[in-house]
Amino acid sequence: MSGPTKTMTVLTCAALVLTTAYTVALGSSAWLWFGLVVLTVATIGMAAADSAVPPAPRPRPRPPGPTGP
After folding, report:
1. What is the DSSP letter of 55?
2. Is the pTM of this model over 0.85?
3. 47 with 1: CB under 8 angstroms?
């Protein structure tokens, strides 16, 4: 996982904790939960796209050059 994907995951987990705390303290807010769902789906998509990146191509072997005395 790359740096931006890890950051997005941490922010999503923090949003989950804050949304849960808000719901316990002040009552449920459908917009907060909807936003959390959208953020979670975006994070999953970002992680899937990050893991689907093919590895870098291997360098080509050099053809044998002329050998001289």
Report:
1. P
2. no
3. yes
